[in-house]
Amino acid sequence: MSIGLIGTKLGMTREFMTSGQSVPVTVIKVEKGRVLDVISKDKRGYNAIKVGFFKIKNSKLKKQMKGYFTKKNTEPKKILKEFRIENIDQFKEGNELGLEIFKDKKFLDVRSKTIGKGFAGVMKRWNFGGLRASHGVSVSHRSHGSTGQRQDPGKVFKGKKMAGHMGDKSRTMLNLEIIKSDIENNLLFVKGSIPGAKNSTVFLRESVKNISRKTIKEKHEAKVKATEAKKGKK
User: Are both 74 and 86 inside the same structural domain?
Assistant: First the structure.
């Protein structure tokens, strides 16, 4: 596992590339993380670092966590994440991690919670067609219809698509392209939309898949080179 960061979704805008192309982007305010603990293989069987994100008032902490942060001699943090890494020699307690860890990365995986929709029917939640809107159907046009079977098995199977709570679930968007990063203001511009409402917490990590596709910038540069090569042949 590689080291990740946590940020806040600020909203969406668009970025104009040098090619003139307009790209929709999501702006993420990335929080700087502080290394609270360096875990060695001798101690726990694996190498890892524990990183804290977001400040929190001391009054909102439980007694055990107050003691933990006092022992570490650092300000309280709201979210603690553990990242398994191979080499822990380059990290020390108190080190800060920011956008610089994604300096040479082109693609990221983004995980966040979807917007909660509350209790939803099957037509909204699962895209059911509903019952007939003409003769023979009485006050159940948007219902799901039959749910069970006969005497055998005589039950509704687990996982059956029915009405219920919609949204408010963790979802991961893979291989999102980094359009721009502003290290001074800790802002990250990622292509496209990501799950969640404004000001929701977003988890960022290096892409777990090997990506061979080109970025928008690389595609434009390749196009320019191809055009110049054609002109040179003429």
Answer: yes
The answer for residues whose C-beta is within 8 angstroms of residue 40's C-beta and 6 or more apart is: 47, 88
Question: Is the bond preceding 24 in cis, omega lying within 30 degrees of 0?
Answer: no
What does the alpha-carbon distance between residue 98 and residue 33 come to, in Å, rounded to a whole number? 7
Total domain count, the chain? 2
Q: How far is the C-alpha of 155 from the C-alpha of 52, rounded, in Å?
A: 47
Sign of CA dihedral 140, 145, 147, 151: positive
Same domain? For 52 and 132 the reply is: no
| Model pTM score | 0.85
Q: Is residue 154 part of a domain?
A: no
- Nearest CA to 114 out of 186, 166, 54 is that of 166
Q: What is the pLDDT of residues 208-224, one digit of tens each?
A: 888 888 888 888 888 88
- 143-153 pLDDT per residue, tens: 998 888 888 88
Range of the domain at 130: 118-149+159-166
